[in-house]
Write a structure and sequence with these properties.
One of its GO terms (cellular component) is cytosol. The chain has 12 helices and 12 strands. By secondary structure, the protein is of the alpha/beta class. It has 2 domains: 120 residues, Rossmann fold (3-Layer(aba) Sandwich), CATH 3.40.50.720; 178 residues, Rossmann fold (3-Layer(aba) Sandwich), CATH 3.40.50.720. The protein starts with 8 loop residues before the first strand and ends in a 10-residue tail after the last helix. The structure holds 2-keto-D-gluconic acid.
Length: 319
């Protein structure tokens, strides 16, 4: 060996924890787009050197970013969702794309189920009731809604949807799911092809679909109203799967009972109408946000980049 390797130049779209940043800085020339005052000027300057993009699920890599990097070979996504990557642009140029599946599945499922429990039992309000002295001053906290034994619908029975359903089975929920077709690994659960029919028979509807142009607003006014005034919508996928305007209208008018949401259109800014609703539980896109999972995600991002530049097979390729 003994040859001096030139470190590949990587465009970094968003921040990573120090435990990822340090090894990335050691192995590659990292160019931090998110720190640039003028992103277009920065892209024009570093783009020609860039052979890899390291991004986050929600940030992706758009056509302009890909076009600004004429020598781009690989896009490594920190996240299972790659809907924010312009796959057509990548494919047209033979650019490889990787994501971080599997390592986050259980945490995302945990958070979805936790949101259902917290919201159904009114735990955020109950905590405030204790902290602000209402318990002593006003007495008993209002009664809440039971979870166990109810009917849950899982929209999208992929890796995350499957883990959600498995957990719900532990709460003796009656489970049904929608997907492109029945799954052989879901024999105990009812398959209902039509999302409106799924929502109609469900008390809790979990949205666990990989987002794409085909699933955009798949949860529209009809699904939301079928879920109804006693129903709860839980979204741990992407905001684009839900017609957010229809959701806000239904929550404001009581045509939908409640929602527990980890993702929002235009996040981290969100529609201020959400903030004045008493019947929503809001989370900051944090379903994969544990030390353990984020460490595994960061390692996969690095290992995919490392494998690519070493001429080895990618660990978790999308393209
Ligand atoms: C991450 C995600 O929060 O996996 C995904 O697709 O959206 C989340 O796990 C995100 O990608 C981290 O930036």
């Amino acid at each position: 060996m003994g040859e001096i390797m030139t470190k590949p130049h990587i465009l970094q779209v968003g921040p990573y924890p120090a435990w990822d940043q340090e090894p990335l800085d050691a192995a590659f020339h990292m160019h931090r787009l998110f720190e640039a005052a003028d992103r277009d000027a920065y892209l024009a300057e570093v783009g020609p050197k860039v052979r890899g993009i390291a991004t986050r699920g929600e940030l992706g890599a758009n056509a302009a970013m890909i076009a600004a990097c004429p020598n781009l070979e690989i896009i490594s996504v920190y996240g299972v969702g790659y809907d924010a990557v312009d796959l057509a642009a990548a494919k047209a140029r033979g650019i490889r794309v990787t994501n971080t599946p599997d390592v986050l599945t259980n945490d995302v499922a945990d958070l979805g189920v936790a949101m259902m429990l917290v919201q159904s039992r009114g735990m955020i309000g109950a905590e405030t009731w204790v902290r602000d002295g209402s318990w002593a001053a006003k007495g008993l906290y209002p009664l809440q809604r039971r979870v166990w034994g109810k009917r849950a619908g899982v929209l999208g029975l992929g890796r995350i949807g499957y883990e959600v359903a498995k957990r719900l089975a532990g709460f003796d929920l009656e489970i049904a799911y929608s997907d492109v077709g029945p799954k052989d690994y879901a024999k105990d659960w009812e398959f209902i092809a039509d999302p409106v029919a799924l929502a109609e028979r469900s008390d809790f509807l979990f949205v666990t679909l990989a987002a794409s142009a085909a699933t955009r607003h798949i949860v529209g006014a009809k699904v939301i109203e079928a879920l109804g005034p006693n129903g709860m919508l839980i979204n741990i996928s992407r905001a684009s799967n839900i017609d957010e305007a229809a959701l806000l209208d239904a929550l404001e008018t009581g045509r939908l009972g409640s929602a527990a949401l980890d993702v929002f259109e235009g996040e981290p800014a969100l529609n201020p109408r959400f903030l004045s609703l008493p019947n929503v539980l809001l989370q900051p896109h944090h379903a994969s946000g544990t030390f353990e999972t984020r460490q595994a995600m960061g390692k996969l991002v690095r290992d995919n980049l490392g494998a690519h530049f070493a001429g080895q097979p990618l660990l978790t390729p999308v393209l």
